[in-house]
Amino acid sequence: MEQTTKCQTDEFWMSEALRLAQKGHGFVEPNPMVGCVIVRPDNDHGQVVGQGFHEKFGEPHAEIKALHEAGEDANGATVYVTLEPCAHSGKTPPCADALIKAQVARVVIGAGDPFDQVDGQGIEKLVAGGIDVTTEVCIDQANELIRPYVKRVKHNLPWMVAKWAMTLDGKIATATGESQWISNASSREIVHQLRGRVDAIMIGSQSAEKDDPLLTARPPGPRTATRIVLDSSASLSLESKLVKTVAAAPVLVAVGPEADCKRCERLQNAGCELWRGTSSVRNDRLIELIRDLSNRGMTNVLVEGGGELLGSLLQLGQIDEVHSFIGPILLGGHNAMSPVAGQGFDSLKDAKPFVTQSVREVEGDVYIVARSMR
Questions:
Q1: Hey, which end of the chain has fewer CB within 10 Å, N or C?
Q2: Crossing angle for the helix pair 62-70 and 10-21, nearest 10 degrees?
Q3: Among residues 2, 16, 29, 63, which one is catalytic?
């Protein structure tokens, strides 16, 4: 394998493993993204003899991929892995056992795995097998990588990603509802990439009625998202693009407890799944729904509006990540629509804080990604 000219440090090699891990986004869920680099201390800089990442749910984990590439060179080497190796048999055998069998000398771990069948047991098994273990290297970056997975495992809730396109003055549509197009074609291509990496895409009934969206990834991504409409009265039109394309991608209509049975039956006969909430309170029903999505194994849910839905999620503390596309136009108007509506907060000190992850220009648009603070 190619040698590096940089100094051999745990942080450097862990950063390489983290970079590899990100390649699994959209492919590995509900598993976490994991990367692994195996290094031999054959010179002052170290030499990579094996590397890998978890490429797809159900397929070999990152450690197994890296060990297979390293072969006999894994004996006596140092393994850098972004997440604690598993100690249990699931769809694949325990990675901790494979590392012990390969007789690696040292394992350096980024983050611990909170899954109850791992959660320290992988580290214990490695130590019992005579392997030197170092933990919490680049731990902040490693934990950030797996936040969606951790939220689902620890709280039984999916990672909720809000997306919107808005003007320079923060408007997503005119007072009459016109919104196509605030962002440019290149920004919309990024949205299609986002859609292809999530388990579900959620909108409110007003967005479904006004925009008649398709909500599919074009071209298709690694995942086919379930398209979810929050429609308390089951009013979604049978002539909508969503219903007409139900054979191409699932449609789930979330209705209230008082929704008309005949309307529900018509949607079911058209191929939609009906989910009926038990609470008459909108926000209670919303949290009930997203918890059910987690129970189904969904990790990432993209929310494309409208403002009332995003306002409810904000009130519930359930906006984890924001993808905001800002088009270089001014719209103005007291009644022009904003991305997040609802009750809001009366004081700035109550506002939910986010950390900016990236800002970049997309052919004139500004694309901002931010994540909620822990």
A1: C
A2: 110
A3: 63
Across the range 194-223, mean pLDDT stands at: 95
Is residue 70 within 8 A of residue 50, CB to CB? The reply is yes
Residue 178: predicted pLDDT: 85
Q: What is the DSSP letter of 148?
A: H
Closest CA to 148 of 138, 135, 161: 161
228: nearest Cα among 277, 181, 191, 281? 277
Look over the chain and give the mean of its residue pLDDT values, rounded to a whole number: 94
Asked whether the predicted pLDDT for residue 1 surpasses 50, the reply is no
Q: What is the mean pLDDT of residues 357-364?
A: 97
Single pTM value for the model: 0.92
- Residue 321 a catalytic site member: no
| Per-residue buried b or exposed e for 284-298, using 16+ beta carbons within 10 Å of the residue's own CB | ebbbebbebbbeeeb
SS3 at position 172: coil
**How many CB atoms lie under 10 A from the CB of residue 259?**
20
Joined together, the tokens standing for residue 56 give 């797809």
Residue spans of beta strands (DSSP E) within the chain: 35-40, 47-53, 78-83, 106-111, 132-134, 159-167, 200-204, 226-230, 251-255, 273-276, 300-303, 321-327, 354-362, 365-372
Nearest in space to 47 (alpha carbons), one of 24, 74, 25, 22: 74
User: For residue 96, what are its two tokens?
Assistant: 């901790």
Residue with tokens 């006004």: 210
4, 45 contact by CB (below 8 A):
yes
pLDDT band at 176 (very low <50, low <70, confident <90, very high): confident
Q: Both ends of the chain: CA-CA distance in Å?
A: 39
Q: 338 near 174, Cβ under 8 Å?
A: no
Asked if 129 contacts 96 with a C-beta cutoff of 8 angstroms, the reply is: yes
Q: What is the mean pLDDT of residues 58-68?
A: 95
Predicted local distance difference test score (pLDDT) of residue 6: 42
Question: Each residue of 222-249: pLDDT tens digit?
Answer: 999 999 999 999 999 999 999 999 999 9
In whole angstroms, give the CA distance from residue 100 to residue 118: 16
